[in-house]
Each structure stands twice: as structure tokens, then as C-alpha cells.
Amino acid sequence: MARLHEYQGKELLKSHKVPVPKGRVVSTPEEARQVAGELGGEVMVKAQAWVTGRAGMGGIQRASTPEEAESVSREMLGMAVKGFTVEKVLVEERLDIEREFYAGVIIDDRARAPVAIFSSVGGTGIEQIARDHPDRVAQLEVDIVEGLQDYQARDLVRRTGVHGKLLRDLGGMVASLYEVARSYEARAAEINPLVLTADGKLCAADCRVTVDDYAAFRHPELGIEIAREFDRPPTALEKIAFQVEANDYRGTFYFIQMADDFQKGDGYIGFHGAGGGGSMMSMDALLSRNYKLATYVDTSGNPPASKVYRAARIVMSMPGIDGYFASGSGVASQEQFHSARGFVKAFMEDRLSVPAVIRLGGNMEEKAIEILQRAAPEIRAPLEAYGKDDTADFCAERLDALIREGKIKDLPPAPPRPEPQEPYTFESPTGTVTYDHAVCDTCESKVCVETCVRKILKLENGCPVLNISRDDAKGGRCVECLACEVECHFAGAGGGHVELPIPGLEEYRKGLLKR
Amino acid sequence: MSILIDESKRVLVQGITGREGIARTLLMTEYGTKVVAGCTPGRGGEEVEGIPVYDTVLEAWEEAGPIDVSVLFIPAPLVKSAALEAIDAGIKLLVIIPDRVPIYDVLVIAKAAKESGAKFVGPNTLGVLSPNKGVLGMIGGRAASARAWFFPGPVGVTSRSGGITSAMAYYLAQEGIGATTLVHVGGDAVVGLPHPEVVKLFEADPDTKAVVMFGEIGTSQEEQVADLIEAGEFTKPLVAFIGGKAAKEGTRFSHAGAIIEGGRGTHEGKVERLREVGATVVDSFGDIPKATKGVLADLGV
Question: Which residue in B100, B160, B185, B260 has the most chain A C-beta atoms within 10 A of its own C-beta, making it the best mutation to test that interface?
């Protein structure tokens, strides 16, 4: 779920008529001083970070004067809070709190509906409050089509022991909170505490909103860069990986960087799973052997070979890994040879230098294993391929053995690909296919035509050309199976090449993108 | 018998002309599923694997006859519209394959389904398969693989992970244990037929003697299954494995549903609760076939 900062949540509340403390978000101590001056009186300086328990870390502090606000902000900005660097602080009027409440809207998986929750006792841990004061907490399932009616919100509040004018006003807030949650498709939206001040006003003192990852695309106004749950800011590699996923809906490519700052010999493995369940178990197989994960990748849901290729190149951009372990459920329904070709292209291009064990079990696994084994002699590091009748545990055992053996073949690097003499190119959905017809002329097998999964090639004067329109190829008839490059290399003359750009990766590798 | 799919169900494929639609229509028809029509707006009049394509679901119902199930292969942002169309036309079971369907869309689909007496599997599901009877979705990939891996028998298989659905049924089959139906509940947090709903269907199926369940961290599905056992609403033996032991709080491991939030949905919580009510929870995935054999032997099956 994509989490919004407190100040962003408060902006959404404000736009839906829920009062929030006067104040502004700032990124420098000077600005903090200025805002404190404008507000006059005591202010609160609050670090904007996706963590709970900010107060305990010095992330929420009072300031009596603008100078103090400036010095407090100076301390907070740049502070590391559970892996996050505080880049912004919220400077707000300090509220004279008489009473605290809790209001929240959460999607309940069991009810398959949003649930509105209200408590006449605010504070941390709504579950604990519900246990300790059951008569002060009430919840209500909301009809997704009808929404939360004003009278329903009022009665929700009434059930927690609140009456009269306060009930009416709080009811209005809860109804507005639901509107915010619904409008921005929040998995959860909470105001805790919702405060009654000494002069009788209600105010949302804090606000936590997490937006459904899968809806972020239709809320560009929220400025969510990566719609994923992170307990720390996304790394440069994660951003690169997310771009690949965002621009290609075919199959899944999930990528998280699990570690940073490690070297060869530290026991970190590039882990590449397929399917959440199988990946978690394959992960366990590595962890139980005291290896650590450098990456957690999932390419499942029948991704094209091009996506697996990109995933592998991103994993291999972490220089300190000791091995590459790809293993999913073992009995996948997707045709596994696509992934196999994606791995082969990536391993050859990047000259894989660490042992790799690839378990592509399931549909068409024989073909997948064959494709990997055929490539093994041309790859410096040992490459082994397994299927569904080999357990994840056995495969992890093999990787461990290969890493300990430490054998690397002494292969000269492949010569750089020459400029094509007679290029024939067409675009695929996310890349460019190029044949050098001068080379194709010399090819005896012409395997590209028969191995093209979608049969979109034909021979013209003995050279491969599209038998469909260029637009159709780019629009998706070409599924980027990579046969035209991989089969061509191993069984043909080598005239075919598929260029698949990965924006940002070259720069990352050149060290220009720092975390 | 079986649950949800067999050779008699009349099936519609929505999005039949897309990449997945074409490939899986072939899988379904070759496996014996009665696919009677397809629907892709704008492509009415075409044919895919011999199946007629229509412009709207109602048109398919009118021209090809009543439809029992619709399988959706549609881009995520368009799923809600397609699902509502199917429910509106009177279809009582939907299998929503795509990943990344916005959660509020799923809630709207859930309400419409409830009001119409319809059910849905998924979203983010590989589908449902009853060995030698029919398949809805992608399980097996190709008919030849599905035929080689699965055979009919007494165990109901339900899983929150797609690949694991096939894996469990395959490894059980290797030990001579067949299945009534394989159900991939789906990887998302909000799904139409979560584990507790599936086990209720297995409870009502006379041919299912025991159930094997792959659970995960996150949501409360496995705890709800335990509640059903305790309440006497699910009485057949259960063998379960819960994935995600190594996951820490707050990190999502691929599935939107596999996240521990606020201390709920933890691995230990699920394992303890299920063991508390007498279910067999294995600590290692590889122990599933043996445990299942034991459970069936105790039943005298």
C-alpha cells in the first residue's frame, strides 16, 4: 500500500472540510522559523516519515519561539528514522487538547467492505483500546455503493457514549473521513487522535492514509512515485524495476532490494522467485543454509521472456552477490521456456560470473531446462537447471555446492556485436528486433521462423521478415519470446538480436545513481 | 463430484481475443471444459479456437444459450465493468484471473455478486480445476500438462498461491492421491471465495474426504477456517501448510494479501489457531503428501 505522509493526509482532509491544525510543511530550518513566526505562540514540529512512534524518537517536539522551531527542525531534518531520512517537517499550531478520539476507515477482507471505526478514547493502538474499553469503540460496515450516510456516522459515534452537539460534529467528521478514503481508494485512513480543543473545536491532530497500490495509477494528483508498501524509501534499483513493471502489464515483476552494502564472500544471493507461495518456500531453502537474500524478485503470471530478462539484469546489477537462485512453486502453469530464454539472454549479455541454479518446474519444463543447459557451456560461471521433481531444498543444496567449489571457466568475452550490414528491424511492444540479413543469408537452419512462438515471421529471399504488419507486431502480436535471438544464436547464424532497454540501468551501473 | 467446475458447466470467456484469452481457451476446451462463447466488445462475429465471439455478455447468453460461469482475461482497470456486466446478465460464477485489480473495484463486484446470488473466485487467481472434468483459467497451462499432472481422487486442494495449487496437487498425485477440485483462492487481500468459503463447498461435496490447504501470512482466512472447524461447520480432516514464516511485519511478499498488519495475520497465529482446533499443520511443505496419506488412512479411504 502506498503510504501518504501526515501532511498529505491532512491536505486531503482539509479539502473535505475536516479541520486540521493551522500550519505548513517545510524542508528547511529557516522556513520552519518563518512558519512558527506566522503562527505565533507555541508550535509543534513533526518529522514527516512513514513510521509510528515518532515522539519516542524525537520526531515530534514543541517549540516556544520561532528560533526554537528553527533549531528543532535543524535537528530533525536529515535525521535517520528507521531507515528513512526526514526530508520535511510539519510546523503546526500547538493544540490545547481537552479530549482525544479515534476515527478510522479500513477495508475489511472478511466483510469484503469498508469498515468505519470510532472510539471515544483516542491514543495509540486501536486494537488495544478496543480490548480495554469495548463500550467506547464501535464499528460499522459501510455499503460500498451507498457510502456512509450522515445518520449512520452519527449513530456510530453515539454508540461510544458521545451525545449532543459533539456527537453531531464528530459524526460529520467520520462521514468526511469516509469520503476521503473512498475518493482516494485508501486501504486505511485514520485520524488518531481526533482532538477536542479547550475552546471547543474539533481538529484532526494526526492522519495516516495508505492508498491501494493497484489504484495509485488513477490518482496522479497524489504524486505517488512507487505504489508499494515500503518500510523505507525505494532504492534506485527498485525505482528502475518499478518502471519496467509500470510500463508492461504482461505478467508480474515484483522486485525488492533486501540488502545494501555487502561484498562477495558475505553470502548474499540474487534471489529470483516466481509465484509468491513457491518463492517464499524457495527463500526458506536458502535462509536455512545461512545464505542471505540480496533481492526478492517475483516474475510470475506468465510474463514474457523480455520481462524475465530485464529482471535478471537488474538482479545482476548488484555486484556483491555470490550466486543466483531462481526458484518458484516448481509446478508452474506458465510455459517456462519463456523465462529460460530471458535468463539465457541476460546471463550471456552480462557475462554471469556467479553460479546460478534455475528451477523452472512445470509447464514445458523440459524445454526450459534444455534451453538453459544448452547455454551453460558459453557462460563462465556454472549454470544448472532443474524442474518440478527436484525440490527447492535440493536446488539450494546445489547452489551451495557450486559456490563452495568456486569454479569459473576461462572464457574470452564475446566480441562486440558488429554493426548490421543489412539491417531489417521492427519494433516489439517494449523493444526492437533487428536481423542482419547479410548474416541471415549465410544461415542454413533459419530456425527463427519455426521457433517464433507466435509464428509472425516468414522467409523472403531466404531471410526472415514479418508476415504481419509492423503495427501488429508492436501492438502485441510479437510476444518477445526471444526465440529470434536465442535460437538464432545457438542453432542459426546469429543474425538476430532483440534490444530491450531498461531505463536508468546503465547509469546506475556506472554509479551515477546513488541511493 | 467436484466443486465449481465439471464437464456440464457452460463457460464464457470474457477477453477471449487477448493474449491470455486465446491461450487459455485452448487449454480449457482441450481439457474438456464446455466453453460455449467468448466476449470481447468490438470483436463480435470472430472466432477463437472454434468458439464464437460476441460483443456483449447478454448477446452471448441470447445467442449461445444460458451461461453458468464466466472466466475473465481482461486488463485490471477494466475488470469491474466486465464483472458487473456478467453478473447483470445472470451469470452466477465468475473467475477473475487478472492481477492488480483495484480493491475498491473488488468491493463493488462483491456487493453486486452478493445481491445477485453470484460468487466469484479471485481476483489474481490461476483458476479452478477438477481433474478430468474441466478447468477454469490457467491451471496446468496446457491441457497435456494438466492431464499429466492431475487425476481424480478424494482430496480437495485450496491455496492462496497459484503455483502452489498445482504443486500440492502434483506432489499428492505422485504419491497416488488424487483430487476432487483444485482451487486457487487468489493472492489478493479481498477475494470472492477465500479459504473459509471454499472449505464450506468441499464440506458439501460427498466425494471430497479431506482438504489440503496452503495458507499465507496476512488476512484472516486461515483463522476463519479454524472457526468453522470449531463450530462444527467444517468436519472433514484438514492438512495445512502456512507459507511466509520468514516474512517480517510490514513487508509485502508479492501478494497484496501476504502482509502482516497491526500484529494480525501472523504465521504463528495461524499455525497455533489451526492446531488448536485439531487440524494437521505441517512444518515443511514436503511433508504434505505423507500427512495427507495418514489422514486418509485414518478415514479408511
Answer: B100
Cβ contact (<8 Å) for A331 and B19?
Answer: no
CA pair distance A240, A242, nearest whole angstrom: 5
**Out of B253, B256, B285, whose CB is closest to A213?**
B256
pTM of the model: 0.89
Kindly report the number of other CB atoms within 10 A of residue B278's CB atom: 11
At A1-34, the pLDDT tens digits run 688 999 999 999 999 999 999 999 999 999 999 9
How far apart (Å, rounded) are the C-alpha atoms in residues A203 and A100? 10
**C-alpha cell of residue B107:** 468491493
Closest to A254 in 3D by CA, of B254, B278, B299, B194:
B254
Sorted by where each begins, the domain ranges of chain B are 10-121, 150-299
DSSP 3-state of A383: strand
Give the residue carrying C-alpha cell 463457460. Answer: B11
Nearest to B60 by CA among B79, B85, B80: B85
Cβ distance of A252 and B99 shorter than 8 Å? yes
The answer to whether the Cβ–Cβ distance between B77 and A302 falls below 8 Å is no
Domain range holding A209? 97-222
Q: Are residues A478 and A495 in the same domain?
A: yes
Name which of A145, A277, A364 is nearest B164 (Cβ-Cβ). A277
Residues A89 and A101 in one domain: no
What digits encode the pLDDT tens for the residues A431-460? 999 999 999 999 999 999 999 999 999 999
Closest Cα partner for B211 from B243, B175, B168, B150? B168
* Residue A510: CB atoms within 10 Å: 8
| CATH number for region B10-121 | 3.40.50.720
Q: Which three cell numbers stand for residue B265?
A: 495475520
Contacts for B94 with CB less than 8 Å, ≥ 6 apart? B69, B70, B71, B72, B83, B86, B87, B109, B113, B118, B119, B120, B121, B122, B192
ipTM reported for the complex, 2 dp: 0.91
Same domain, A446 and A394: no
Q: How many domains does chain A have?
A: 4
Does residue A508 belong to any structural domain of this protein? no
Label residues A141-174 b or e (16+ Cβ within 10 Å = b): ebebeeebeeebbbebbbbbebeeebbebbbbbb
Across B116-131, average pLDDT = 97
**Type of residue at B181:** T
Q: Is residue A18 part of a domain?
A: no
- For chain A, what is the largest distance between any 2 Cα atoms, rounded to a whole number of angstroms? 90
Residue of A nearest to B265 (CA): A109
Give the CATH number for residue A31: 3.30.1490.20
The partner residue sitting opposite A109, judged by closest CB among B140, B219, B251, is B219
Residue of A nearest to B142 (CA): A363
**How many residues are listed for chain A in this entry?**
515
User: For B272-294, how does the pLDDT look when each residue is reduced to its tens digit (9 = 90+)?
Assistant: 999 999 999 999 888 999 999 99
Q: Quick check: A115 pLDDT over 70? A: yes
Annotation marks residue B255 as catalytic: yes
Nearest to B124 by CA among B137, B112, B143, B111: B137
Nearest CA-CA partner of B281 in B271, B289, B292: B271
Last residue of a domain, one of A37, A69, A93: A93
What is the pLDDT at residue B259?
47
**CA of A125 vs chain B CAs: smallest distance (Å):** 9
Closest to A357 measured CA to CA, from A387, A401, A395, A330:
A395
Query: What pLDDT does residue A223 have?
Result: 82
Using one digit for the tens of pLDDT, what is the confidence trace for A24-67?
Answer: 999 999 999 999 999 999 999 999 987 777 877 888 999 999 99
CATH class of B150-299: alpha beta
- Asked if A144 and B166 come within 8 Å (Cβ–Cβ), the reply is no
CB-CB contact of A311 with A255 (8 Å): yes
Cβ–Cβ of A254/B254 closer than 8 Å? Answer: yes
